[in-house]
Design brief:
Length: 370
């Protein structure tokens, strides 16, 4: 802490207007420091000059890292958009430039305490975090089994970090301690995959490349099942008018592209837009029915069953570079069928036959806004 005091004096004397906040976090702030623990500092610069205060050094065989975090990044941490929320949540202030800076920082810490009330927002963040896992699974799958086991352990390490960070979000919290120290918190989560501890131990201790890869795949599969189960619990009442307002008007441009592609024999356009349009419509209908979006991590495409259950045609199945007639007919059927479905569900579709009608409506909207 003598080093901390020295750094704060240095800031006061040389960067009085350039650094807003100085704080420390980690084992010292949590009361778990050992004789070898380093003191984890960070500071929030107020000007470009403030960034120059960053310094890393070793004193008496203990490492010190005095590093900058922008206000923007601190806000991302406080709103669970980054995995290291604990840096802001559990930090202890050493210095603030002004009462305004102090108040701003305290509000960030309060944001973490209050937490967003919506379970859906945390599920969405957990899903986004889990998405990052699949690059590492891909790399594990492409690497040869006879390769250096160091490679597999590196990728498995990243799989574990992403999965456990996602799991914390699913439990509406953050990992409070560093890796290796947070086992008890993780095991006490109310929501966790079956056999989590066993799978974690296997990934960390396995001594063959194939075993590591298989264990990672099983853990990710278990985590995805848990995520999908939690999403299913969010199901609310169907609501088309607010969730699909303006959807048809925007989509019609894509359907017109498809009709033109069929009439001119342009298969690349027909291919990309038919698959894209059907998937987009299916996702929106699913959202209108359930109140949340289907996860793109699920390889089953089950959400498209909602689309088909409405009697809408399967464009993708009739794609044929040698015969555009079935696709053209399916697009016409989709256009009329979707419009009919939305109107029946209470969605207002805005159409104008003349420019004069459009002008009158614009004027009316201005008057209504007054």
């Amino acid at each position: 802490m003598d080093v901390a005091e020295t750094l704060v004096d240095h800031i006061k004397n040389n960067y009085p207007q350039d650094i807003a906040i100085v704080a420390y976090y980690g084992s010292y702030s949590q009361g778990t420091a050992t004789k070898r623990s380093d003191l984890d500092f960070f500071f929030i610069p107020a000007t470009p000059k403030g960034y120059r205060a960053s310094i890393q050094f070793v004193m008496q065989d203990i490492s010190f890292d005095f590093w900058p975090i922008s206000w923007e990044r601190a806000e991302r941490m406080a709103t669970y958009q980054e995995t290291n929320t604990s840096i802001i949540a559990d930090s202890i202030l050493l210095y603030s430039r002004s009462d305004e800076d102090l108040s701003r920082f305290k509000k960030l810490q309060q944001t973490i305490i209050d937490m967003p009330p919506s379970q859906q927002s945390f599920i969405n963040k957990a899903e986004e975090q889990l998405r990052a896992v699949y690059l590492h699974l891909y790399k594990l799958g492409k690497a040869p089994y006879e390769g250096n086991i160091t490679y597999y352990r590196n990728e498995a390490h990243d799989v574990l970090i992403q999965v456990l960070s996602s799991l914390a979000l699913l439990n509406r919290t953050y990992l409070k301690s560093g890796w290796g120290k947070n086992q008890s918190q993780i095991m006490n989560f109310a929501l966790k995959p079956a056999r989590l501890e066993e799978q974690m131990d296997y990934i960390m201790c396995a001594d063959s490349a194939e075993s590591i890869r298989d264990a990672c795949e099983h853990l990710v599969e278990s985590m995805l099942s848990l995520l999908i189960e939690e999403k299913a619990g969010l199901t609310g009442q169907p609501s088309y008018p607010d969730r699909m307002k303006g959807f048809y008007e925007e989509l019609k441009g894509i359907l017109d592209k498809l009709k033109t592609a069929c009439e001119t024999g342009n298969y690349p356009i027909a291919y990309f837009w038919s698959i894209g349009a059907q998937d987009e419509i299916a996702r929106f209908i699913y959202y209108a029915e359930h109140g949340y979006w289907p996860t793109s991590l699920d390889s089953s495409l089950n959400y498209q069953q909602v689309y088909l259950s409405k009697g809408l045609p399967d464009l993708v199945s009739v794609l044929d570079p040698g015969n555009f007639a079935p696709l053209h007919e399916a697009v016409l059927c989709l256009e009329s069928g979707l419009e009919k479905l939305l109107i029946e569900e209470g969605v207002t579709i805005i159409r104008y036959e003349t420019l004069e009608q459009f002008k009158l409506d614009l004027e009316k909207s201005l008057e209504d806004a007054k």
